[in-house]
UniProtKB/TrEMBL annotation:
GO CC annotation: nucleoplasm
Keywords associated with the record: Cell cycle, Cell division, Chromosome partition, Mitosis, Nucleus, Repeat, TPR repeat
Originating species: Glossina austeni (Savannah tsetse fly)
Cellular compartment(s): Nucleus, Nucleoplasm
One BP term from GO: chromosome segregation
Family label: Belongs to the SCC4/mau-2 family.
Name recorded for this polypeptide: MAU2 chromatid cohesion factor homolog
Length: 669
């Protein structure tokens, strides 16, 4: 921000000298160390005593609004000045900078005070007035599209972005056109219009390859394009198909982050229609980590997911220390959601509940209007449900999943929560509830669910149900379908769960050879992931198989492994119920409760001796493994649902004031 003196055609008058002096003093006080904002505001307000011309008065109101919004919490006074600036500047010709800057800032302020409809109305009016100014027209279109996307009015957002692409094309702004196309693809991805997404991505990709001449801008657009392409494949559960695109994305981000790469200011600071950038490169760097984590999680590589999560969180903290942007909190919550699932798969449930609490804290501290908490409450309920389920608090888990289903509009998240509810009903022998929920999932046109992982999960749950009914032929049919889907896309965790259950099916019909053929690769995959629940279950099956073949040595080894896994889980269970965060399982309404460090939760521990664990481990482990078989929602879709469309970010804001420095001298009167 800079308060520049603005000249006139008659700079010799005493009034002009007063204007210039007061503006100079205001800027002096603003840039003092520390800034003296009160005196800065007083200097600007003093300008009104001279009854300045309308343009001077409007610009001064705008500057006061900017100062008040940037340095104070006095939204009422900021609103008064910005509304004054808008009223004065709206009818004026050749005054675009002040007019549209005011509209944009006033829309932001209305959004802060939860007047979304007023914010949209002023942006629509400004868009109508800006038809002859391509820069402002496109900037305002992006800003309004973002508002509609935030309110889940995706059709309106998509229409605005289509208008923006046409406006950019008419102005010959190819770079800006691609930004609009990719932003629209992101909206269509949220709506799950997969065919339209693919068409837009192909169109944008061709333009990037053939019509973007600036190599640095081309690389930025390529990263945006590849992020969406990776998210597209991950939303479909196509973990194997996405690998080439993910590798290319990782190479592109390394190019952008190289020491000899020009700064964003150099790349985007020349042409006003190129002063738009989706995300600055430092945030893109974190985002690439995030989609890599999502891929690792879906593929079943928990160690990799943990490693990249830790690196991304470290980078986020560095960026937050410099400038605490809201998008960094979004990244952090999604990363924590991933790491929570990794912890539970690996049997570290006490760490998982700690990190759920950390995600809660990020959401609660994200701002007064609590938008981040509103968007992530359903996911948090689902995570708490998974935690409660893995620690055998089935009633709490059921309540959490039901709350998740009621609060979310995300189709995949609803399906995932319902599948876990089915597991709970299966485990607690509630046959009627189980039938109802499986029928509900089936009648909701399950074939339209696009995620390969979730479709495989649906077949897995049906196979588990058939197994518990002793309908072994039916169980084999469902599980073979699951394996076909899992193997096609390298969904290793789904594969290992299906193999170990199929092994148990064969064991139940006394086909020890086929049982061994299934459990051996299941254990190998489980060790690679690593998945303690499949290892627990598989070791119980191996113990029985070796006992049947009278192989005492291997039976002893399998029992020892089984006892080891059991004891690890029991020890972790004790830590869980003693954790100060365990009371999150009681949270159902409103914001999640803060942690009470003085009152640790006390709960019954479902312990089992090493002797009887062996007889019950298979069923309990199968339940836990199923509960965590895939990300709770396509994290790519979850991210794109919150990604910035009006991402003019650093470049637009930085150069906005540079433009003012030149225009002020010409447009004061």
């Amino acid at each position: 921000m800079s308060l520049q003196t603005v000249g006139s055609n008659n700079a010799t008058t005493s009034q002009d000298a007063c204007y210039i002096s007061l503006l100079g003093l205001a800027e002096y006080f603003r840039t003092s160390q520390p800034p003296n904002i009160k005196k800065c505001i007083q200097c600007l307000q003093a300008l009104f005593t001279f009854q300045p011309p309308s343009k001077v008065e409007a610009r001064t109101h705008l500057q006061l609004g900017q100062i008040l919004m940037a340095y104070t919490n006095n939204t009422d006074m900021a609103r008064t000045h910005l509304e004054g600036a808008w009223k004065l500047s709206e009818p004026l010709l050749n005054f675009d900078d002040v007019k549209f800057d005011t509209a944009s800032l006033l829309a932001e302020l209305y959004l802060q005070i939860d007047q979304n409809s007023t914010s949209k109305a002023i942006l629509r009016k400004a868009i109508e007035l800006s038809l002859n100014n391509v820069y402002w027209h496109c900037k305002l279109l992006l800003q309004l599209a973002q508002l509609h996307a935030n309110d889940r009015e995706y059709n309106l957002a998509s229409e605005l972005l289509a208008v923006g692409a046409e406006s950019a094309e008419e102005a010959g702004a190819t770079y800006l056109k691609v930004l609009f196309l990719l932003s629209r693809a992101m909206i269509l991805m949220i709506e799950r219009k997969t065919n339209d997404v693919l068409a837009l991505l192909n169109s944008a990709g061709a333009i990037i390859d053939n019509h973007i001449n600036n190599p640095h801008q081309k690389e930025y657009l390529k990263v945006f394009f590849l992020v969406l392409q990776v998210c597209y494949y991950l939303a479909l559960g196509q973990v194997k198909t996405v690998k080439p695109s993910l590798k290319q994305l990782q190479m592109s981000i390394q190019t952008i982050m190289a020491p000899n790469w020009p700064t964003d200011e150099v790349i985007f600071g020349q042409n006003p229609l190129e002063m738009f950038v989706w995300l600055p490169k430092e945030q893109l760097y974190v985002l690439v980590y995030l989609v890599t984590v999502s891929h690792s999680m879906m593929a079943g590589y928990m160690d990799k997911a943990q490693k990249y999560t830790e690196k991304a969180l470290t980078q986020i903290e560095k960026l937050k220390a410099q400038d605490d942007k809201c998008i960094l909190s979004v990244f952090k919550v999604i990363l924590l959601e991933h790491i929570v699932m990794c912890r539970m798969v690996m049997g570290n449930r006490e760490l998982a509940i700690r990190e759920i609490a950390a995600a809660r804290d990020v959401c609660l501290s994200s701002g007064p209007n609590g938008q981040l908490l509103k968007r992530h409450a359903a996911q948090l309920h689902c995570l708490v449900g998974l935690y409660a389920m893995s620690t055998s608090f089935f009633e709490h888990a059921e309540n959490q999943f039901l709350t998740c289903v009621n609060e979310t509009t995300e189709r995949d998240l609803k399906l995932f929560a319902k599948l876990n509810l089915a597991i709970i009903y299966l485990r607690t022998k509630r046959d009627q509830d189980l039938k109802q929920i499986l029928d509900a999932v089936s009648t909701e046109n399950t074939h339209t669910y696009s995620s390969q992982a979730l479709m495989g999960g649906f077949y897995y749950v049906q196979g588990l149900h058939a197994f518990h009914k002793a309908s072994f032929h039916e169980a084999k049919r469902f599980l073979r379908e699951t394996l076909k889907m899992a193997n096609a896309e390298d969904l290793n965790r789904l594969t290992s769960c299906s193999l170990v259950l199929l092994s148990h099916v064969f064991l139940s019909i006394s086909n020890s050879k086929e049982s061994m053929n299934m459990v051996t690769p299941a254990m190998q995959l489980a060790s690679k992931i690593p998945d303690i629940h499949v290892q627990l279950w598989g070791s119980a099956i191996l113990k029985d198989l070796h006992r049947m073949s009278k192989d005492a040595q291997h039976e002893k080894e399998a029992l020892a492994n089984h006892v080891k896994y059991s004891e690890n889980l029991i020890a972790d269970q004790l830590k869980c119920v003693q954790s100060i965060h365990h009371n999150l399982i009681d949270w159902l309404k409103g914001p999640p409760p803060p942690t009470n460090a003085t009152a640790p939760a006390i709960a019954i521990i479902n312990t089992a001796s090493s002797n009887n664990v062996a007889t019950t481990a298979a069923q309990s482990a199968s339940t836990q493994a199923t509960a965590l078989m895939s990300p709770i929602v396509s994290q790519s879709a979850q991210y794109t649902n919150q990604s910035p469309l009006n991402a003019t970010n650093t470049m637009q804001q930085h150069h906005n004031f540079q433009q003012h420095q030149t225009h002020h001298q010409q447009s004061y009167y």
